[in-house]
Amino acid sequence: MQKETILGVDVCPYNYKQLMQEVDRDIKEKKKSFCVAINPEKIMKAQDDPELKELLNKATYQIPDGIGVIVASKLTKGNITERITGVDLMLHLCTLAAEKGYKVFLYGAKPGVANMAKQELEKQYNGIQIVGTIDGYEKDDEKVVQAINRSGADILFVAKGSPTQELWILEHMNRVNASIYQGVGGSFDVISGQVKRAPRLFQKFGIEWLYRLLSEPKRVKRQLALPLFMIQVLKSIRR
Question: Which UniProt keywords are present, listed alphabetically (predicted)?
Answer without folding.
Answer: Cell wall biogenesis/degradation, Glycosyltransferase, Teichoic acid biosynthesis, Transferase
